[in-house]
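ARCHIVE CARD
CATEGORY: sequence design from structure
SOURCE FIELD: tokenized fold
FIELD CONTENT:
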């Protein structure tokens, strides 16, 4: 800045441009967050368990499965039940995400066996 600019109080053009762009960015952010707060709907966790595959290992079957969360909120302490017993607990399943796991079950068990499902969860 020159001595003449300091004495007259004029601001350089670049300073005005960046100030205007910054102000517009902040205004856009405030509008976006306000819109989300007023009109956004969030749905509870929607958890679905599906068996990916079953592999025979010795006298047990190893079932690989996935837990998909189709909801807009996360779920924590997600328990998976197989044949009526808690077998796996996922600490956290984020919204619109998939977690995978495996469980060993004795005896005959196939990929189409419907006895695997969600036992419960908590909303963090």
């Amino acid at each position: 800045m020159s001595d003449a600019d300091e004495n007259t109080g004029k601001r350089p053009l670049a300073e005005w441009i960046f100030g205007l762009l910054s102000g517009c960015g902040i205004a856009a952010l405030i509008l976006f967050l306000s819109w989300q707060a007023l009109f956004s709907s969030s749905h509870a966790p929607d958890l679905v368990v599906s068996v990916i595959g079953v592999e025979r290992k010795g006298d047990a079957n190893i079932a690989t499965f996935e837990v998909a969360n189709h909801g807009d909120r996360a779920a924590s302490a997600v328990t998976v039940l197989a044949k009526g017993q808690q077998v796996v607990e996922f600490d956290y399943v984020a919204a619109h995400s998939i977690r995978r796991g495996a469980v060993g079950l004795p005896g005959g068990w196939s990929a189409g066996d419907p006895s695997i499902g969600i036992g419960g969860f908590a909303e963090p």
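CARD ANNOTATION: The mean pLDDT is 85. Strands lie at 47-57, 60-69, 75-82, 85-93, 97-106, 116-122.
SHELF: design records, drawer C
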